[in-house]
Design brief:
This is NtaA/DmoA family FMN-dependent monooxygenase. InterPro entries: Diverse_substr_monoxygenases, Luciferase-like_dom, Luciferase-like_sf, NTA_MOA. It is an enzyme of class 1 (oxidoreductase). One of its GO terms (molecular function) is monooxygenase activity. By secondary structure, this protein is an alpha/beta fold. It folds into 2 domains: about 10-280 and about 375-460, TIM Barrel (Alpha-Beta Barrel), CATH 3.20.20.30; about 295-370, no CATH class. It has helices at about 35-45, 80-85, 105-120, 135, 145-165, 225-230, 245-260, 280-295, 300-310, 345-360, 365-370, 380-390, 410-415, 420-425, 435-440, 450-460; strands at about 10-15, 50-55, 60-65, 65, 95-100, 125-130, 175, 180-185, 190-195, 200-205, 215-220, 235-240, 270-275, 275, 335, 375-380, 400. It has an 8-stranded parallel beta barrel, surrounded by 5 helices. Helix 2 (about 80-85) packs parallel to helix 3.
Length: about 450
């Protein structure tokens, strides 16, 4: 008897501060107007997606002291956008990226618990940390922390929020039969959190939310990041969109979750992905080449490489060879406000030179080749098959789908690919749960009395 097909988790990603979005395209919509967020969310819900995901931009990026003109300028605050979307959707999860370095536990716990109530239990928090002092300048205390301290604060932040969310039980809010007023039990909301980062105690004001507590999302590539996510997250964003690297990451993180005492199935692996469709495979490939050309202009290629070289590369021809100079890691950063993901500049440049020589690639062609998001290209049937094969072969548990064209690009996927995934039995025909936690297949949370018994048993 064959094993049941894995059900594909789908998230919808609204592109913003990155080079993937063709924001200058004549058909592109506003990145700030609510209609953009609403259209994407409604389309995702029509396609039975699990959640809508918003990234975060806390500072206007700069190049050599000037505002970056290769990114969208402006990103509305995440939580008000998600709260507004809660009013125009019914089943779709609402996932927001909020920085653990620049926020305090009590404030953040109240905001997410409130959103979870407003949405009927559909909230998720994507936990990120600060990566540079440049972004921290926007905040009262700066906020930049060394790598080890960032993870320490983030781990304590998650524990603190869970403590606050768990300070209420499902039946701690009761109705007084005589007056009809809601009353809280004597110890409801009591909390105390003490650690290296936080020392807070009091009474939490927001009762238990419909899904108990919001879903926790996290991204981690380094060993520390993988361990952190394996211990703390309900889902982790994977940077790998192709087999076999994706399957290796999948096995590694699931194994770390098991070593942390968790059921590996309770940690979902979700890489981001894009798509390009065509009536024929040749047409889809032609469209893909056109899209990549729009995304990676000569100036975009220059700026993406400048972050690694940390030099002004404007004097190099984008259609010529790679720069013949070495990186300058000791100079002041030429690109500010963009996360640096390459651990070793010199090793990265050496590898890129080998690839460019082997494939006969220009500077711009090298960027197109290396800054790939893992697109699924082909006819709708081919894309549905590729996605299904990727997930069934444990490349992931699902995908975060984005499009270069905001907000209309997702419509094509929902109209043409989603029905084929449903026909294959890999995507539900309708929502089966009432909360995001239900729809993701995450285990139910224990009641407070059960948690106390577990904690007492763990202490023995």
């Amino acid at each position: 008897m064959s094993a049941p097909r894995k059900q594909i988790i789908l998230g919808a990603y609204l592109g913003g501060v990155n080079h993937h979005t063709a924001w200058w395209h004549p058909e592109a919509g506003s990145q700030i107007d609510f209609s953009t967020f609403e259209h994407t969310a409604r389309t995702a819900e029509r396609g039975k997606f699990d959640f809508f995901f918003l990234a975060e931009g806390l500072a206007l990026r700069e190049r050599a002291g000037q505002v970056f003109d290769q990114d969208i300028v402006g990103r509305p605050d995440t939580l008000p956008v998600l709260a507004s979307l809660a009013a125009v959707t019914t089943h779709l999860g609402l996932a927001g990226t909020i920085n653990a370095t620049f926020n305090e536990p009590y404030e953040l716990a109240r905001q997410f618990a409130t959103l979870d109530h407003l949405s009927g239990g559909r909230t998720a928090w994507n936990v990120v940390t600060s990566f540079d002092a440049f972004t921290g300048q926007n905040f009262r205390r700066g906020g930049f922390l060394d790598r080890s301290k960032r993870y320490e604060r983030a781990a304590e932040m998650i524990d603190a929020l869970r403590t606050l969310w768990d300070s209420w039980d499902d039946d701690d809010l009761v109705v007084d039969q005589a007056t009809g007023r809601y009353l809280a039990r004597a110890d409801a909301g009591s909390f105390s959190v003490r650690g290296g980062q936080f020392d807070i105690h009091g009474r939490f004001t927001v009762p238990r939310s419909p899904q108990g507590r919001p879903v926790i999302l996290q991204a981690g590539v380094s060993p520390e990041g993988r361990d952190f996510a394996a211990r703390s997250a309900d889902a982790i964003f994977s940077p790998y969109g192709k087999l076999p690297a994706a399957a290796e990451f999948y096995r590694d993180v699931k194994a770390r979750a098991a070593r942390a005492g968790r059921n590996p199935d309770d940690l979902k692996i979700l890489p981001s992905a894009s798509f390009v469709l065509g009536d024929t495979e040749a047409e889809a490939q032609e469209r893909y080449e056109e899209v990549r050309g729009q995304q990676i202009t000569g100036q975009t290629a220059q700026i993406l490489l400048e972050q690694v070289w940390n030099r002004d590369l404007s004097g190099y021809d984008p259609d010529g060879p790679l720069p013949d100079v070495d990186p300058d890691p000791d100079a002041p950063p030429i690109i500010q406000g963009r996360a640096f993901v390459h651990q070793d500049r010199f090793a990265t440049v050496a590898r890129w030179r080998e690839i460019a020589d082997a494939k006969k690639l220009s500077l711009r062609e090298l960027v197109i080749d290396q800054f790939e998001r893992g697109p699924f290209v082909g006819t709708p049937a081919q894309v549905a098959e590729k996605i299904d094969d990727f997930v069934q072969n444990d490349g992931s548990d699902g995908l975060i789908i984005g499009s270069h064209l905001v907000p209309w690009g997702l419509d094509e996927f929902v109209d043409q690919v989603v029905p084929l995934l449903q026909e294959r039995g890999s995507l539900r025909a309708d929502y089966t749960g009432s909360t995001l936690r239900d729809n993701l297949g995450l285990p139910p949370l224990p009641r407070r009395s059960e948690r106390r018994t577990e904690d007492a048993g763990a202490a023995v």
